[in-house]
Recover the amino acids of this structure.
């Protein structure tokens, strides 16, 4: 998962739904998926918004899990060779 923001937004039902849950404008939510060079967050979701989304997930609104918020490291060559 190279862009957790896109994954989380998809799981949560789209930009409009996420914006409503985190009490932000849709443009702010869309910026999470933009690279930092374009004024975005590089795919990361602000911590306060992560908490709000996880509270909604605990209420059963969608199947979001904490690991959805993190960028998975690609395995290094040494990890591949060790496997």
């Amino acid at each position: 998962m190279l862009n957790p923001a896109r994954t989380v937004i998809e799981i949560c039902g789209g930009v409009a739904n996420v914006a409503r849950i985190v009490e932000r404008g849709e443009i702010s939510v869309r910026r999470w998926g933009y690279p930092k060079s374009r004024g975005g967050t590089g795919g990361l979701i602000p911590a306060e918004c992560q908490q709000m989304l996880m509270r909604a997930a605990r209420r059963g609104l969608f199947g979001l899990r904490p690991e959805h918020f993190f960028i998975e490291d690609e395995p290094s060559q040494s990890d591949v060779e060790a496997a």
